């Protein structure tokens, strides 16, 4: 049964995002057909519109499932339950779900996936290294100030390339069916430690500034982001994720990338370059 899925398309939901893009690239490099599940995809895939799901699943044998804005958010479990049931009924039994470490709400979604009858794998990750160069924290890094409601809490940041490698292994090798992998980097870091690593890599001062959750919530609203993102930091503040896990080693037989290596490689690409003229940002993407 699994061999049959190898000749069919893999749907990568969120295929333009941090992990989805990497998963799609790896599968394509292996010569496996891939369909990008996104609003701009052909056909489009939209979580908020279940009418788009069936067309996206046509001819699909496996799915990498990411959920925006977060698997623990209200409504996510119902969407995952309905999508997983539809996927299995359409012949896409191989489902790999990206989840979050220590998120009780996400476990509800995980269980809905497991109950669908799918050949499932759960990949739980810590905060991504790439949040600092591809997402939420890029502008603060460029500005030299990372203001967050995390106090001195520690997190084992994990690299998106490591996540993608685990996901691709799970999608393509049946030995990963029915397993839950918790992923982290090789050491715990506070956001103050992160600021130090980024300062070392970029050669300029980057500070971590502790703020309250209310202050952070107001900043989210100002930037048009969901206020519920502020609640995700509760997972850090109570220490539930302040320990290392070894899913990368378990799935791949190698060590995960360290944050310092990520920072050094990213700085070398010029992502965090700042023009000396009026403090303007001059990133590799500009």
Chain-wise SSE layout:
Layout: H1 2-6, E1 9-13, H2 18-29, E2 34-37, H3 53-56, E3 60-65, H4 76-89, E4 94-100, H5 104-114, E5 119-125, H6 138-143, E6 145-148, E7 154-155, H7 160-172, E8 179-183, E9 189-190, H8 191-202, E10 207-210, H9 213-222, H10 234-237, H11 247-252, H12 259-268
Helix pairs in contact: 2-7, 4-5, 8-12
Explain what this protein looks like in three dimensions.
There is one protein chain. This protein has 286 residues and is of the alpha/beta class. It has a domain at 2-127 and 158-183: Rossmann fold. 37% of the residues lie in helices and 16% in strands. The strands form 3 sheets. A 6-stranded parallel β-sheet has the order 2-1-3-4-5-8, sandwiched between helices. It has a two-stranded parallel sheet with strand order 6-10. Strand 1 (9-13), helix 2 (18-29) and strand 2 (34-37) form a beta-alpha-beta unit. The protein is globular, with a radius of gyration of 19 Å.
CATH class of the domain at 2-127 and 158-183: Alpha Beta
Taken in chain order, the helices and strands follow as HEHEHEHEHEHEEHEEHEHHHH
Question: Which stretches are low in confidence, meaning pLDDT under 50 for 5 or more residues running?
Answer: 1-5, 278-286
What's the N-to-C terminus distance?
47 Å
Quickly count the helices.
12
Largest sheet: 6 strands, parallel
In which order are the strands of the major sheet placed? Answer: 2-1-3-4-5-8
Radius of gyration: 19 Å
CATH architecture designation of the domain at 2-127 and 158-183: 3-Layer(aba) Sandwich
- Mean pLDDT, all residues: 91
DSSP strand tally: 10
The 3D shape can be described as globular
Q: Which fold name corresponds to the CATH topology of the domain at 2-127 and 158-183? A: Rossmann fold
User: Structural class of the secondary structure composition?
Assistant: alpha/beta
Proportion of residues in β-strands: 15-25%
């Amino acid at each position: 049964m699994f061999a049959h899925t190898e000749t069919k398309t893999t749907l990568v939901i969120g295929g333009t995002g941090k992990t989805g893009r990497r998963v799609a690239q790896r599968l394509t490099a292996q010569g496996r057909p891939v369909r990008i599940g996104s609003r701009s995809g052909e056909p489009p895939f939209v979580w908020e519109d279940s009418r788009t799901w069936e067309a996206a699943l046509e001819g699909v044998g496996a799915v990498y499932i990411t959920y925006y804005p977060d698997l623990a958010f209200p409504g996510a479990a119902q969407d995952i339950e309905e999508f997983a049931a539809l996927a299995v009924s359409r012949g896409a039994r191989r489902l790999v779900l990206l989840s979050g470490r220590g998120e009780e709400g996400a476990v509800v979604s995980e269980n809905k996936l497991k109950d669908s009858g799918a050949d499932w794998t759960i990949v739980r990750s810590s905060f991504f290294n790439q949040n600092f160069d591809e997402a939420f924290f890029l502008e603060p890094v460029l500005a030299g100030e990372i203001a967050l409601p995390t106090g001195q809490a520690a997190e084992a940041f994990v690299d998106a390339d490591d996540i993608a490698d685990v996901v691709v292994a799970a999608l393509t090798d049946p030995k990963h069916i029915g397993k839950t992998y918790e992923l982290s980097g090789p050491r715990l870091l506070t956001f103050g430690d992160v600021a130090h690593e980024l300062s070392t890599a970029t050669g300029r001062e980057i500070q971590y500034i502790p703020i309250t959750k209310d202050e952070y919530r107001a900043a989210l609203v100002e930037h048009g982001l969901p206020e519920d993102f502020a609640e995700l930091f509760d997972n850090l503040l109570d220490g539930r994720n302040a320990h290392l896990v070894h899913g990368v080693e378990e799935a791949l037989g190698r060590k995960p990338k360290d944050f310092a290596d990520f920072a050094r490689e990213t700085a070398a690409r010029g992502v965090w370059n700042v023009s000396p003229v009026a403090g303007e940002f001059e990133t590799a993407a500009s």
